[in-house]
Write a structure and sequence with these properties.
The complex is a heterodimer of chains A (114) and B (112). Chain A is mainly beta and 114 residues long. Chain A contains no helices and twelve strands. Classes of the chains: A mainly beta (114), B mainly beta (112).
Chain lengths: 114, 112
C-alpha cells in the first residue's frame, strides 16, 4: 500500500539558513511525488512534482527536491530561507498518471526565526 | 481566473442534519477529489473521481457520499453528520492525476 512519512513534525530555521524537509514514501512501483505548501488559513499550493527523468526537480519559490529511489526519499530543499516560507509543507505520493489517488504525509511545520 | 471554488467556507451544523458541500472547477479538469485535514493526520483522501460518473473511495470514505454528474462539479454529501466529521475539507481538481491537484480554499465544518 502507498504511504508517506514526514519524520519531522516541526522544524525551526533562521532566516537565510538552508532548509531540508524529509519525506519517505512506500510504493511498489515508480511513484509520482509531490510537495505542497499550505500557508496559515490557506489552501494548498503545488511546489514541485516528480514523474520520471532527472531526479533533481526544480519548483516554485526557489525550492528543489531530489528523488532517491534507493532510499525511497524525496526531500525538499531550499538554499536560503525567507520569513515568508513559514508554512506547513506536505509531501504526497501518487500511483500513476491515470488515477486520482494521492496520499499525503502528516506535514512538517516550518518556523523561520528572524 | 482558473480556480476550484468550494461553498460554504464555514459551516456549523447539528448531528444528523444532512448537508452538502459544493465544489466547482472552471479548468475543464478530468480528475476531482475530496480531502479532510485534521491536526497531526495531514490530508486524508475521502473520494476521488476520474471522470463524469466515475468515482472511487479514498482512505476515509465512511460517512460520506459524492456524485459526479457534470465535469465541473463534485459535491460532497454528509447524509447524517457526526461530531467526528468536524474537520477542514478541501476539494481539488487535476487535468490528469499525475499533474498534481489544484486545491480550493477549504470548508471548515463543525458538527455539534
Amino acid at each position: 500500500a502507498q504511504s508517506v512519512t514526514q519524520p519531522d513534525i516541526h522544524i525551526t530555521v533562521s532566516e537565510g539558513a538552508s532548509l531540508e524537509l524529509r519525506c519517505n514514501y512506500s510504493y511498489g512501483a515508480t511513484p509520482y511525488l509531490f510537495w505542497y505548501v499550505q500557508s496559515p488559513g490557506q489552501g494548498l499550493q503545488l511546489l514541485l512534482k516528480y514523474f520520471s527523468g532527472d531526479t533533481l526537480v526544480q519548483g516554485i519559490k526557489g525550492f528543489e527536491a531530489e528523488f532517491k529511489r534507493s532510499q525511497s526519499s524525496f526531500n525538499l530543499r531550499k538554499p536560503s530561507v525567507h520569513w515568508s516560507d513559514a508554512a506547513e509543507y506536505f509531501c504526497a505520493v501518487g500511483g500513476s498518471s491515470n488515477t486520482g489517488k494521492l496520499i499525503f504525509g502528516q506535514g512538517t511545520t516550518l518556523q523561520v526565526k528572524p | 481566473e482558473a480556480q476550484v471554488t468550494q461553498n460554504p467556507r464555514y459551516l456549523i451544523t447539528v448531528t444528523g442534519k444532512k448537508l452538502t458541500v459544493t465544489c466547482s472547477q472552471n479548468m475543464n479538469h478530468e480528475y476531482m477529489s475530496w480531502y479532510r485535514q485534521d491536526p497531526g493526520l495531514g490530508l486524508r483522501q475521502i473520494y476521488y473521481s476520474m471522470n463524469v460518473e466515475v468515482t472511487d473511495k479514498g482512505d476515509v470514505p465512511e460517512g460520506y457520499k459524492v456524485s459526479r454528474k457534470e465535469k465541473r462539479n463534485f459535491p460532497l454529501i454528509l447524509e447524517s453528520p457526526s461530531p467526528n466529521q468536524t474537520s477542514l475539507y478541501f476539494c481539488a481538481s487535476s487535468f490528469q492525476g499525475a499533474y498534481g491537484y489544484t486545491f480550493g480554499s477549504g470548508t471548515r465544518l463543525t458538527v455539534v
